[in-house]
Amino acid sequence: MPTRGVVYVHSTPLAVCAHVEWAIARVLAAPVRLVWSPQPIEPAAQRTECTWSGRVGTGAELAAALRQWPMIRFEVTEEPSPGVDGERFMYVPGRGLFASAMSANGDIMIGEDRLRALVASARGAEGLAHALDRALGTAWDAELEPYRCAGDGAPATWLTQVG
Question: Residue 133 contacts by C-beta under 8 Å, 6 or more apart in sequence?
């Protein structure tokens, strides 16, 4: 079943741009030529975004391919498809990769069993609040938000997976 999603490379050194394109091309098995623009938040960095379409699981493959470069900041989304939840991946240098199920409107979803485990293991209200923040990826969102805003209005590229 085909699905689609978006890759947001919020910041990468100029020297890594071609490697990012090659990584995405490897996953999609198709040539990739992205439109890069300066990242105002980080003057020496570039940013890009592209919409992709492909088979279910492509979002995870893209995130795994991009995390090979620990100096880039990125997000990958995969939309829900029949019988499969969507996914969202966020990567921040020094913090690592965050992955979560994603609803059709882009909200992070926390499953019932995970919520029960968080409530059962939390030590008081403050402990529960901290555990929920971690489960929601709040720290990743906070670090990426300035980069997201700086990319408003930037060009996007459309890609399709071969095969």
Answer: 139
pLDDT at 154: 57
Report the C-alpha gap between 162 and 53 in whole angstroms. 9
Residue 107: its pLDDT value, please? 86
Choose among 43, 59, 42, 46: nearest CA to 18.
Answer: 46
The confidence score (pLDDT) of residue 161 equals 57
| 13 and 42 Cβ atoms separated by less than 8 Å | no
Give the side-chain half-sphere CA count within 13 A for 19.
14
What residue numbers bound the domain in which 31 lies? 2-160
* Predicted model pTM: 0.87
Q: Which residues make Cβ contacts (< 8 Å) with residue 103, sequence separation at least 6?
A: 80, 85, 86, 109
Residues 33-81 have pLDDT tens digits of 999 999 999 889 999 999 999 999 999 999 999 999 999 999 999 999 8
| CA distance to 8, 27, 76, 119, per residue, from 61 (Å) | 14, 7, 10, 32
Number of domains in the chain: 1
